[in-house]
# Entry
Amino acid sequence: MEPIIEFQNLRVEYPGADRRTAVKVAVDGLNLAIQPGEVFGFLGPNGAGKTSTMNVLLGFVPPTGGMARLFGNDVSLPISRQRIGYLPEMTYYYKFLSAEELLRFYGKIFGIPSAVLEKRIDDVLKLVEMQDARKKLIKTYSKGMQQRVGLAQALINNPDLLILDEPTSGLDPVGRMKVREIIQRLKHEGKTVFFSSHELGEVETVCDRVGIMHQGKLRVEGKVADLVQEHGLNLEHIFLKMIGYQHSLAA
Amino acid sequence: MNSSEDHVAARVRFGLLVGVFACATAASWVQPRLEVLSSSYSGNRSVSEVILGDFRQLMANQFMLKADEYFHSGYYPSIFDQPKNKSGVMSEEIRADERSAFSKPEGKDDHHGHDDHHEGVHEEHEEADFLGKPRDFIEAFGRHFFASTHSHLESEQEIKELLPWLKLAAEMDSTRPDAFVLTSYWLRKELRKVDEAEAFLRQGWRINPNSVEIMLELAKLLEADRKDEERAHNLYEAALTKWMRQHPHPTEADYEDTIVEQLLGRIARIEEKKGNYVRAELLLGKLLPLSPAKSEISEQIAALRAKIKAIPAPK
Amino acid sequence: MNVVFCISALVVKELYRRKDFYVVFVLTALITLMMGSISFFNDSSMARYLKELCLFLVWVSLLFISVGAAARQLPAEREQRTIFPLLAKPVSRWQLIFGKFLGCWWSTGLALMSFYVFFVILSGTREHEWPLASYLQAATLHWVLLGIIIAMVMLGSLVFAAPSSNATISVVSIVGLMFLARYLNKIALQQPEPLSSLIYALYFIIPHLEFFDVRDLIIHHRAAIPWWAWSVAVVYGLAYVAMFLGATWLIFRKKRLST
Ligand SMILES: Nc1ncnc2c1ncn2[C@@H]1O[C@H](COP(=O)(O)OP(=O)(O)OP(=O)(O)O)[C@@H](O)[C@H]1O
Ligand SMILES: [Mg+2]
# Structure
């Protein structure tokens, strides 16, 4: 089967602020393929290159080298984004709109017919439990509420692939549980989910496969159970080992 | 906790005190220098007055130009279109009109005077066509988008449209007589609002008691519209005296100004009416070198001389 | 095209949720009506000075409204990072630019329409004349001009770092073009040779914004512009819009999204 997401030798560099500062290599030779129906957890410490990888997938940043494909299309084509839902790392939404208006706007961009769209708006708002505040302007929302709106907009087009950058950050425990439930439900519906997280427990429960990035390189990748067996450690310790933290662990 | 807060408060208070002191020092340093600066170029006026004054003059100028532009229905040269002569400008056109009208008594043939004005304007417009031939296709095309043909006010309503700008100009800078004179000219000659014209002129005269221009216009108003030849005569004479006093040694340029020409002509005509032919002849003699209508004046002088001869010499 | 319309509708919504337009409109109407109630020498039937004042206020207001709106669009998307979820949808950068442009152009067009309706009613009730063809020409040309301005400012918003400096530079250059462009050929003739040709070349390159300012014609009841000339001017203006938008796209295509 053709992978939904495919990276080959992906390299991402950020130019320095001026000529003297060196370029920053954010992703260095990433090879990874994600199959339809998989839930993939993307792990790594701050600054590892997770967001940069996702930015390439969405066409925000052109790859410096290598290539990235979505549904077999080059990521630079807008059409490759028709069937994906994306939740950015932080909440970036139009503050002068209400949740409902924001969802309607995005839905129309996907070309969803009005009648279907209104129904979907109701559904996703119910899913993220935001029906009560749907008519209020986003600028009046708390951070968690904004994160919920973000999740709702990622689901508005009933996507086949979800790219979620730290979906549970800023959510209360109920919210986190809810996100886990949503991911599991999508998996049952046969959707693919590619998400980054710092919550190892959460990753362990919902993911089919995980990958751990460190300093732009993919250090390890595989099924959680296989990794645990292979290293004889739990996921948290594998993570710490991969990022070079084992000395202090031993101490 | 409390004591540290007190400490902060004390520091803030000290800082404020230092700040106030610094400001006061700076002010006392700046103040005399500013005064020197302002008095050096404006006598006793304060800086703000100078700036405001210049601004008002500038605005008044702008409004006068606006009136002129309205007089030509928007067809008006910018600083980049250098007109060959000043004949395109409203005050000049009116002056030309006045010049040709001076020898006839004012008011008698109002209608004729009106036509005459327009004819004069049309003759002049041939020369005043400052735009010339377009230099390139952009310029040629651009002429569709602004007032690029000569045109003049036709109806009373159109003349009225000048008044707001003239009034604003006079209000902005009441020391420029031309705003009062022009306003009065249009008010009395075209709109027949003699009362308003007189009130406005007198207001201007109060502010500019030395303006010969305003006196001349007021005298014209008295003569033509109030039919008060006596007072008009006195005012003409006063204006002439004032002019002489202001120009003890008149130069060619002073005579360029049609004011003295008009005064001489008008006084001469009144004197002639009164039978003071000798004085009339004297005044016309002074006028002769100044006026463009030399043959006409020479004829008038000859006629006067004949009249003087006809008078039997006193025994 | 659907995407472009969605984005432009969003811009219209944003601009009308801000209150600046209403404030400017009410202010313009108030100042005009106040000046209109003055009587000069016991006569208050003068109309042209009032038309002039009203049109001047309309021009200044619309200039600031359109520059303000256009200067904000792309920088705000980038600064507030709303551009990320938006471009994660099937939206190309060209569609984003064109949608933003259309949104600004339509909303300033709505503002322009309300201003001109006010103007037409004002001058009609004063002069009892309704040269609607001339008014229509003036309004449409003005609208095309706003299009050029918006496209130009959007280009500027990618070139200059801060929206405020972009807005200032834009306003200065627009006013400069309005007043000077027409005379550059005459200025060129007064210069020594290398400079002369240079200025003349500039004269042919720069957008002649003065074509779109026909206020004098409607103030002084001049004849309407021939429709062919009007059409040429509209096409000329739209060509500049296309050029500015094309340049904006060329720069934006390679631009990093976050600031
Ligand atoms: N716009 C940018 N310009 C320059 N450098 C950048 C930029 N964005 C990211 N980087 C650098 O690239 C590296 C990877 O950043 P990235 O955002 O991908 O990390 P991350 O794995 O998402 O981290 P986090 O867990 O904190 O979200 C970092 O070292 C960061 O400093
Ligand atoms: Mg990140």
User: Anything to note?
Assistant: Chain B has a mean pLDDT of 73. Chain B is about 70% helix and 0% strand. Residues 100 and 293 of chain B are 8 Å apart (CA to CA).
